[in-house]
Amino acid sequence: IPGAGGNHHPKWVSRISVVANDVPAHDAPPMAGFIDPPPPAVRGSMSGIKLTGYAFVGPEAVGKVEVSTDNGYTYREMPLPAQPDPDVWITWELTFTPPAPGFYVLRIKATSAKGRKQDIPGVIGVEVR
Question: How far apart, in whole angstroms, are the C-alpha atoms of residue 49 and residue 81?
Fold first, then answer.
C-alpha cells in the first residue's frame, strides 16, 4: 500500500470488494523516525552499540534524520541511503560509542525534504556498563 509502513500492509486477505465510490483512507503516520528495537532500555558496552531504525515523512521525501545522544540537547545529522520513493520507509544505522559508563537517552527525529519536522522524537534508553 503506497505510503504505509509494513505494519499497515494487509495480511491474510480473504476477500476483496470493488466499490464505485471513495472510501476513507487509513493513512500512515505523517512523519516518523523510530529506533529499533523498541524496548525501553538496552544494555551495551563501551566498545559501541549498533542502533538501527527507520524514517518516513510521506507524502514527501525524507530530507534528514537527526540523532541525539544527550537526551535532546544537541542533534547531529546521520547519513542516509537513497530513498527510491517518498512512499517508502528508509532505514538508518548508527554505532553509538558512549564517552563513559552510565545511562543515556537517545532521541531520533525526521525532517522532510520540504522542511516539515517531526513533533515528537523517537526515544530509547541505553545503559552502558
Answer: 20
Residue 79, all three cell numbers: 547519513
Q: For residues 94 and 121, what is the distance between their CA atoms, to the nearest angstrom?
A: 16
Digit-by-digit pLDDT tens for the chain (129 residues) are 554 555 555 556 677 778 777 766 544 445 566 655 544 445 556 677 778 888 888 778 889 999 898 889 999 998 888 888 887 888 888 888 888 888 888 888 889 889 988 888 888 888 777
The verdict on pTM exceeding 0.85 is no
β-strand pairing of 76-77 with 102-112 = unpaired
The strand order across the sheet containing 76-77 reads 41-44, 122-128, 102-112, 62-68, 76-77
d(CA 7, CA 33): 15
